[in-house]
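Figure 2 data, in text form.
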Amino acid sequence: MAYELIIRNARLRTQKGLADIAVQKGVIRKIGKIAKAEFKTATVVDAGGNLVTESFVNTHLHLCKVYTLTMMDSKALSSYHGEGMGAAMTAIELAARIKDQYEEGWILKNVRKCLKKAALNGNTHIRAFADVDSKAKLIGLKALLKAREEFKGIVDVQVVAFPQDGVVREPGTVDLIRKAMELGANVVGGIPWIEYTEADERTHIDEMMKIAQEYDADISMLVDDAGDPGLRTLEMLATKTLETGRIGRSLAHHARAMALYQEPYFRKVAALLKKAGMGVVSDPHTGPLHARVKELLANGNLVCFGQDDVCDAYYPFGQNSMLEVGFLNVHLLWMTTFPEMETIYDMITVNAAKCINLKNFGLKVGAPAHLVVLNAKSVYEALWYHTAPLHVVSHGKLVDKQAMSEEGDPRQGRPEGNGRLRPAASPKKAGVLAGRG
């Protein structure tokens, strides 16, 4: 077979010693020793004994809001991060003021900057939220749809039509979400806990579920995201998923009130999540409460991490780097043993892929070639230093660092008709030898 890309001397998580990885037509075709005669037609990268894994997956990013923190005061940030998260709803109401300034031009500029960082940091797949409501209208969503096309083949973006400020609270939002799906949004969003009554919370879930069924789309909902142990929207979403038979099509985000659940209720909800095939995205680094990650994992539930925010009204930092997210949560969750760090790594790669229904994702023969060559020789070292990968492979092609630079044009990094990247920054057949040593 005439391979297009070969990664030599790769250290893998699943076996001892070094191996070569061969890619052809965007798919991993061979893992093992590859004869030099097969190198003739391929671009060759020498991993130099560094760790090579599947790429990173960011399951939760409010992409229409990135880099907007400096456009606001800090009142929303203070409310969301206040003790006990009792003012989380106030934070959302305060943060909504940024939408008075929404213009597609500056949003798209910020989105491009953030997606370039994703590419450089090995995030080849992102589930990205765009506010859709009476204030944001479809402005942010249209910016994300444009960026999705620009970065196609480099960073795959699943656009979520997200009713940030409620459905019952914001009349007309249901119609806007439907219009967003007609425009090409991939996922139906939701935030039912923001509604004022339990009946309205159920209406919120019901209306969004109807649209998801109509468009055969997955659902991503921010549930129970406040310091109130009485919140029940996580349970409501799981129950509705079971009632509609859409097993594995719903994803829960945050569920911070879970930290305050009584043990019997937590166990009931964990069981419901398993029955509904429902994963939980936790972002402990962006709020003082978080889902009970370790207990969920011990129960066999599917759990992953997301970036959540990059420099916005809810979180002042973020590099769109899932290694950085992993590093932070090693500390926040006290998952500091070597086996626990391996689990953390799964939560930003293969488990995250399962949460957003990426098919056949992983470093295995027959899988799409979404890979990172790390500047580290182990998961431990990768999390410790959390530096950008030496090389990123998306859809079987090397991501060009020059095109992903601050001044670069992402469209210059897209495949030409022959399937090879345009820019000259990709290493040629001599390969690249780099590492921490």
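Caption note: The first helix runs from residue 75 to 80.
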